[in-house]
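Here is one chain, start to finish.
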Amino acid sequence: MSLADYGREAPWAERPEQAERPGQSQPQPDGASWFALCVKPRHEKTAAAALRFKGYDEFLPLCRSQRQWSDRVKELDLPLFPGYVFCRFDIRHRVPVLNTPGVLRVIGHGREPVALEDREIDALKVVVRSGLPAEPWPFLNVGCRIGIEEGPLRGIEGTLLEIKGRDRLVLSVGLLQRSIAVEVDRRWVLPLSTDRPRTFAAAS
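Its structure:
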């Protein structure tokens, strides 16, 4: 799906009947799922911290990037998915999430929020924990499907893209139409057969 401009207020952002108390832990029932939240520009860390303060399970994958200043080069931790924060919650109790500072709306199809698959979040967490260089990358619909057989990302599957003479594993998050590119050694990957499940399963 394309990320259309839904407007500042989500159509399902009803006001809660009672104001939530600062630091109050929100219920995380078994029915909770991961959702992508659209947040204000450059408010990813603020929104993630506020969600964590409320007791939600949030995930903000970051990447290390170098920025050239007038007198020095500075390394910054920037979001892999600028403008988005992942959060696990029960969609039936979404109002406290939508009332979080910096949060604009829940990403979905039309007016319906759509949950992300756990395996997509798990794959992103494996990438972050691996420490391999990663960067934001445009969404890809086509490409050679490969599986990682060796190295810290063993068990992950994705799309192979060759850039400037280096092979990279691209893990696509379909709902957001965004991807991340991770540099891997050519010797670590093997092509997947067309009848093999197209998943992002992390190794156990």
